[in-house]
From TrEMBL:
Protein name: Putative ATPase
InterPro entries: AAA_22 (IPR049945), BTAD (IPR005158), OmpR/PhoB-type_DNA-bd (IPR001867), P-loop_NTPase (IPR027417), Sig_transdc_resp-reg_C-effctor (IPR016032), TPR-like_helical_dom_sf (IPR011990), WH-like_DNA-bd_sf (IPR036388)
GO biological process: phosphorelay signal transduction system; regulation of DNA-templated transcription
Record family assignment: Belongs to the AfsR/DnrI/RedD regulatory family.
Location of region: Disordered: 287-324
CDD domains on file: BTAD
Molecular function GO labels: ATP hydrolysis activity; DNA binding
One Pfam family of this chain: AAA_22
Coiled coil ranges: 188-215
Residue ranges of DNA binding: 25-134
Species, as recorded: Geodermatophilus tzadiensis
UniProt keyword terms in alphabetical order: Coiled coil, DNA-binding
Bias (Low complexity) ranges: 291-302
Domain (OmpR/PhoB-type) ranges: 25-134
C-alpha cells in the first residue's frame, strides 16, 4: 500500500510574518504555549507539549501515526497510508476498525478534556482518511520552514542583522533528525531530507548574514561548526575563505581552497564548482571588492548547468564520480587486477557474489584504478533502493546529471547522449531490478560507441556479451600456512588495529582465526565483527559469531548499506519464489558441504519422503545462480558435487525457518541414520561406495550425531554411533571416532544393549589402537556382558567390530581377550549356518590369534585372502594382507613382505583412505630388510607422521626401532634429514599405484 507522500512548500517557503518571527499566536521560539494550546516538536525526537507539559502518546505505533499526520498536516491522509505507518508495509491486512481504535487513542492523548461525543478539533475524520488540524506556528517543522524563508527574504532585502536573528531562531528549534524513529520509511524520507537540507541552508545563510553585517569572526565560528557535520558543501568553504580573507588572513583562505580541492577530488572525484573557482581567482587577483562588510554575490551551491548528456570532461584528470572509502582494500589484489583487465577490454562486466562479499567496495576500487582510461568520466549509480524500471532510469539519469530534452522518451535520449562517449558506468546493487537493468544495458550496448558498464549484483544480468566474475568470501587460513597470510585474517587484523588492538598479541591472533572461520571470511561480517571490539573482548565476539554470524550489525553512524548481515541476505531472500525459499530455509540444518541427495531429504514434507534428485538439483542450481549457495565441486574424483551456505546466509536461513527447524532436523537425522544403518554392502568396492556416501555428506552426519548425542540425547544417537566403527577405522578418522564413541558412552543407558555394546567395542578398538590396552579390555568386558543372551549379538555388524578389536589386541600382544573375541565370532558363525560372511570373519579372527602366537602358515593366509576377494570383503582382505606382511617379515622374506605390502596398501586405497600408518610402517621394515635405507627412512617418517595425526600407536611393530636405527645410521645426517622431511608428506598413493590389483599372489 502506498503512503501519502510529503509535500512541503518549495524552497522552505511558509507563512512569512513581518518582524523577527518571535512569539506569534502566543507561541515563543521554544514551542511553549498557553495551557490550552498543543505544540508539536518534530525537529528531533517527536514530542507533544501542552502548556509546557509533555503529552504521553502511548506507544510507538501512535507516534508513527502522528508523525505521518504532521508530515501532511492540514491535508487528508488515507487509511491505507496510516495503516502502513502504524504496522508497516508488509503487515497483514487489518480492518478499518483496528485503525479507528488507534486513532481514538491518539485523540484521547491529544484532547483529554474533549467531552464524550463531541467532534474532535485536532484530528478530523474525512472521506477516505484523517486530517490533522493545527496552527502551523505550533508545529516546529512548519515554523522552521517559515523562519528560513523569512531570513532569506530579509537578507535579500539588505537587512542582514535581522536576517541573522531570524536564522538563529530557526536553528534554536532544531533538536536533531526529524522523526528519527520513522525517518527511513518511504513516506518520511523526502520530508526529512528536505528539512535537513533547509537546516544546512540556514546555517549557510546565518554565516552569510554575519559577513554582510561585518562580523567575519562570528561567521568563521558558525562555518566551522557546520563544516564538522557537512564537510562537502562547497558553499561553506566559500564562506570560510571569505571570512578568512576579511579577517586579513589571505594565506589561510588560499590554503582552504587547496584543502577543499583535495577533499572534493578524494571524496567525490570532482573539481571545485564555479563559485569556489571564481572566488579563488578573485583572491589571487587581490580583488578589492572582496573586502568590507558587504553581501557577496550569491552564486548559491554549485549546481551543474542543464545539459543533454553526462557531464563532459572539463579538467584533467577525467571526472571520477565515485563514493569515497577511507578504509583500505585488503585481500583483493588478484581480483582487482583481473577485473581491471576485464573492464578495460569488455563492454559489460558483472561482478556477482553473495551478500556481504565486498562487491561494491571492489567495484569502486576497480573504477578508481581505471578512471584515467575513460576520458568522459566514471560514474557510480547506486540502484540498491530502486524497485522498478522507472526508478532505475530516473536513478541513472539523476546520477549522471542528465537533463533529457525528449521527456517523452527519456531512455532513448539517454542512450543517444551516451553514444560515442568513452565513459565507465558502475551500476551497483542490481539484484532486485535485474530485468530493467538488463533491458537498459542491452539497449546501450546494441550499437557501436557504447559506454563500458560494470555491474554488481547477486545474479548475472544474462545479457549478450556479459563477462562474469564471481566474487567469493576472502580465503581462510589453510593447513600449516602462516595464518596472517590469509586475506580474511589480514582484513580482520587491519580493522582491529584501526580500533586500537595489538596485532602482535598471540591471543588476539587465535581469536581472529576463530572469528574469520566462523563467518566464512565474508568481508561484511569481518568488518562488523571488528567494530564490536570497542565493546566486547575478542573471545566474546568469537562466541557471538559462532552462535549466529547473521546477527552482526553496524553500530554508530555510517552508511545504512548492509547495516546488518541478516538484512543484507534478506534482500535476496525476499526475491525468491516459494520453492527456492523452502530450500534456502531447509538447508539451514545442513551445516557444511552437502549433496543434492541430502538437500532433497530435508525438503521432503511429512510423509512425503525425499524430493526427486532432479527437482532438488534444479532448485540447488537456481540458488547457486542467486549467490545463496556456494558450489564446492566433488570431494573426490567421480563423486557428486557438493554445496554449502555461507555461515552468514545459513544464519539468516535458520531465522527464516523459525519453528520449522525442529521438523527439518528430524528429516535430516532420519536420512543420516537410514544412510548409516543400510544393510551391509556386498561385492567388490561396495564397502568403499558406502563409505564414500558417508564422506560426501560427513558434515550432515556430524550434525546428526551432535544433535542426537549432545543437544537432545537419544537411543537413536547411541545406535548410530555404535554402527559407525568401521567407517571411522577405514577412513583414518580414529580421533573423531573415539570422540563420538565417548559421547555415546555418556548416554548409553538410553539405548538397547546391542547398541551400547557396539559403542564400547568401538571405543575399545580405538583405545587399543592408541596403546591404551587396559582401558580397552575393561570396555570389552562390559560389552560382553551386554551382549550376553541377545539374539542380535551374533550379527555380522557385531562380528565386524569384534574382528577389528581382535586385530588391535593381537597387535598389542593382548592374546587372551583376542582369543575370547575369536570364540564369540566363531559361535555366531556356527549359529548362522551357511552365512559365508560370518564364517569368513570367524576364520579371520582365528587366524589373527594364531598369528599372534606365531604359528600361522602362509598358505592359510593366501586362501583366506582369496575368499575375502571372492566375497568382496575388502576390510577382511586388508586384515589378512597385513597378517601376511608380518609373517613374511618374521620369516625374513623381504620380497614376499613387499608383495603382500602392495596388496595391503591397495586395499586401503580401494577403501578410500590416503592414510595408513601401520601399512606404511610394515612396508618401511620390509624396505629396510630389502637394503633400501633412504626409502625406508622416508616410509618410517610417513608412518610416524600419520600415526601421530590419527592418534594410533607408534611404533606398532616390535621390529621397527631396530630397523629404523639401522637405516638411519646407513645414511649421512643430511640425507637422513632430507628423507624424513620428504616422508612427512607421503601418502599411500605415493607408495603404491592405486590402480594396482589387490589380488592374492599365486
Amino acid at each position: 500500500m502506498a503512503a501519502s507522500r510529503t509535500r512541503l512548500p518549495e524552497d522552505g517557503a511558509g507563512p512569512v510574518v513581518a518582524g523577527t518571527g518571535v512569539a506569534r499566536e502566543g507561541v515563543n521560539v521554544h514551542g511553549d504555549a498557553p495551557a490550552d494550546v498543543l505544540s508539536f516538536r518534530d525537529l528531533g525526537p517527536l514530542e507533544v507539549v501542552r502548556g509546557g507539559e509533555p503529552v504521553a502518546l502511548g506507544g510507538t505505533r501512535l507516534a508513527s501515526a502522528l508523525s505521518l499526520l504532521l508530515v501532511d498536516a492540514g491535508r487528508p491522509v488515507s487509511v491505507d497510508a496510516l495503516t502502513e505507518a502504524v504496522w508497516g508495509a508488509d503487515s497483514p491486512a487489518r480492518s478499518p476498525s483496528t485503525l479507528d481504535s488507534h486513532v481514538w487513542r491518539l485523540r484521547k492523548a491529544l484532547e483529554p478534556d474533549r467531552p464524550p461525543g463531541a467532534p474532535s478539533a485536532v484530528l478530523l475524520r474525512e472521506p477516505g482518511g484523517y486530517r490533522l488540524v493545527a496552527d502551523p506556528t505550533t508545529i516546529d517543522s512548519r515554523r522552521f520552514s517559515g523562519l528560513v524563508g523569512e531570513a532569506r527574504a530579509l537578507l535579500a532585502a539588505g537587512r542582514p542583522q535581522e536576517a541573522g536573528r531570524v536564522a538563529e531562531q530557526a536553528l534554536a528549534l532544531w533538536r536533531g533528525r526529524p522523526y528519527p524513529t520513522v525517518a527511513d520509511e518511504p513516506w518520511a524520507t523526502a520530508a526529512v531530507a528536505r528539512l535537513e537540507e533547509l537546516r544546512d541552508q540556514v546555517r549557510e545563510l546565518l554565516a552569510e548574514a554575519l559577513l554582510a553585517d561585518g562580523a567575519p569572526e562570528r561567521a568563521l565560528l558558525e562555518v566551522g561548526a557546520a563544516m564538522a557535520e557537512t564537510p562537502l558543501r562547497e558553499r561553506l568553504w566559500s564562506l570560510r575563505m571569505l571570512a578568512q580573507h576579511r579577517l586579513g588572513r589571505p594565506e589561510e583562505a588560499l590554503r582552504s581552497y587547496r584543502q577543499v580541492r583535495a577533499v572534493l577530488r578524494d571524496e567525490l572525484g570532482l573539481e571545485p564548482g564555479p563559485e569556489l573557482r571564481e572566488l579563488h581567482g578573485r583572491m589571487l587577483a587581490e580583488d578589492p571588492t572582496l573586502a568590507g562588510p558587504r553581501t557577496p554575490a550569491r552564486a548559491g551551491p554549485a549546481v551543474p548547468s542543464p545539459r543533454h548528456g553526462p557531464p563532459a570532461q572539463a579538467v584533467a584528470p577525467p571526472p571520477a564520480h565515485l563514493p569515497h572509502r577511507t578504509s583500505s582494500l585488503v585481500g583483493r589484489g588478484r581480483e582487482l587486477a583481473e577485473l581491471t583487465g576485464l573492464v578495460t577490454g569488455s563492454g559489460l562486466v558483472s561482478l556477482v557474489g553473495a551478500a556481504g562479499c565486498g562487491k561494491t567496495r571492489l567495484a569502486i576500487e576497480v573504477a578508481r584504478t581505471v578512471a584515467g582510461r575513460f576520458p568522459d568520466g566514471v560514474w557510480f549509480v547506486d540502484l540498491t533502493a530502486a524497485g522498478d524500471a522507472a526508478t532505475v532510469l530516473s536513478t541513472v539519469v539523476s546520477a549522471l546529471g542528465f537533463a533529457p530534452t525528449d521527456t517523452a522518451r527519456p531512455a532513448a535520449a539517454l542512450r543517444g547522449s551516451l553514444h560515442g562517449r568513452r565513459a565507465l558506468l558502475v551500476l551497483d546493487g542490481c539484484q532486485q531490478v535485474l530485468d530493467p537493468v538488463a533491458d537498459l544495458v542491452d539497449d546501450w550496448l546494441s550499437g557501436a560507441g557504447a559506454p563500458t558498464v560494470l555491474v554488481t549484483s547477486r545474479e548475472p544480468l544474462e545479457v549478450e556479451g556479459e563477462r562474469l566474475h564471481r566474487l567469493g568470501p576472502l580465503p581462510l587460513p589453510q593447513g600449516d600456512d602462516d595464518v596472517t597470510s590469509s586475506p580474511a585474517v589480514a582484513l580482520l587484523l587491519d580493522r582491529l588495529a584501526a580500533a586500537g588492538a595489538d596485532r602482535e598479541d598471540l591471543g588476539l591472533l587465535s581469536a581472529v582465526v576463530r572469528i574469520a572461520t566462523a563467518v566464512d571470511g565474508v568481508p561484511l561480517a569481518l568488518e562488523l565483527a571488528a567494530a564490536r571490539a570497542r565493546a566486547f573482548s575478542l573471545d566474546e565476539i568469537a562466541h557471538q559469531v559462532t552462535a549466529d554470524p547473521s546477527s552482526l550489525a553496524r553500530t554508530g553512524r555510517g552508511s545504512d548499506h548492509h547495516r546488518t548481515v541478516r538484512v543484507a541476505v534478506e534482500q535476496s531472500y525476499a526475491l525468491l519464489p516459494d520453492d527456492e525459499a523452502e530450500l534456502h530455509r531447509a538447508a539451514s540444518v545442513l551445516p557444511g558441504p552437502f549433496t543434492v541427495v541430502a538437500a532433497g531429504a530435508v525438503l521432503g514434507g511429512p510423509g512425503a519422503g525425499s524430493r526427486p534428485d532432479t527437482v532438488t538439483a534444479d532448485l540447488v542450481a537456481r540458488l547457486v545462480h542467486r549467490s545463496l549457495l556456494v558450489p564446492l565441486g566433488p570431494a573426490r574424483p567421480g563423486g557428486p558435487s557438493r554445496f554449502a551456505q555461507l555461515a552468514t546466509v545459513r544464519g539468516h536461513a535458520a531465522h527464516a525457518a523459525g519453528p520449522d527447524t525442529a521438523a527439518l532436523r528430524r528429516r535430516r537425522d532420519g536420512w543420516a541414520t537410514a544412510l548409516t544403518l543400510a544393510g551391509p554392502p556386498r561385492g567388490r568396492g561396495a564397502r568403499s561406495a558406502r563409505f564414500d556416501a558417508l564422506d560426501d555428506d560427513l558434515p550432515t552426519l556430524r550434525a546428526t550425531l551432535q544433535h542426537l548425542l549432545v543437544e537432545a540425547p537419544s537411543a537413536e544417537g547411541v545406535r548410530l554411533a555404535g554402527r559407525l566403527g568401521t567407517f571411522w577405522c577405514f577412513r583414518s578418522r580414529t580421533v573423531e571416532g573415539r570422540t563420538w564413541a565417548e559421547r555415546a558412552l555418556e548416554v548409553e543407558h538410553l539405548a538397547d544393549p546391542v547398541s551400547a555394546a557396539l559403542v564400547r567395542l568401538t571405543l575399545a578398538h580405538h583405545l587399543s589402537s592408541g596403546g591404551q590396552d587396559g582401558l580397552a579390555v575393561a570396555h570389552l568386558a562390559v560389552a560382553t556382558d551386554l551382549l550376553e543372551g541377545s539374539p542380535d549379538a551374533r550379527s555380522r555388524t557385531v562380528a565386524e567390530v569384534q574382528t577389528l578389536l581382535a586385530h588391535s589386541l593381537v597387535a598389542a600382544g593382548a592374546l587372551e581377550p583376542a582369543r575370547a573375541l575369536a570364540a564369540a565370532v566363531a559361535t555366531a558363525a556356527r549359529t548362522a549356518v551357511g552365512d559365508a560372511d560370518l564364517d569368513l570373519l570367524a576364520q579371520t579372527c582365528a587366524a589373527l590369534v594364531d598369528s599372534g602366537s606365531g604359528v600361522l602358515p602362509g598358505g592359510r593366509l593366501t586362501a583366506l585372502h582369496r575368499r575375502a576377494l571372492a566375497l568382496g570383503d575388502e576390510p577382511v582382505a586388508l586384515v589378512v594382507a597385513g597378517m601376511a606382511v608380518v609373517g613374511a617379515l618374521r620369516s625374513g622374506d623381504a620380497p614376499a613382505a613387499l608383495s603382500w605390502s602392495d596388496r595391503m596398501i591397495a586395499h586401503r586405497l580401494v577403501l578410500g583412505t590416503p592414510d595408513g600408518p601401520v601399512a606404511l610402517e610394515l612396508r618401511a621394515v620390509a624396505t629396510a630388510m630389502a637394503g633400501r635405507p633412504r626409502e625406508a627412512v622416508r616410509l618410517f617418517s610417513a608412518a610416524r607422521t600419520q600415526a601421530v595425526r590419527t592418534g594410533l600407536r607408534w611404533p606398532a611393530f616390535e621390529e621397527t626401532p631396530d630397523a629404523l636405527r639401522a637405516v638411519t645410521a646407513a645414511l649421512d645426517p643430511g640425507a637422513a634429514e632430507r628423507a624424513r622431511a620428504d616422508g612427512a608428506r607421503l601418502t599411500l598413493a605415493d607408495v603404491v599405484d592405486p590402480t594396482r590389483t589387490a589380488a592374492a599372489p599365486a
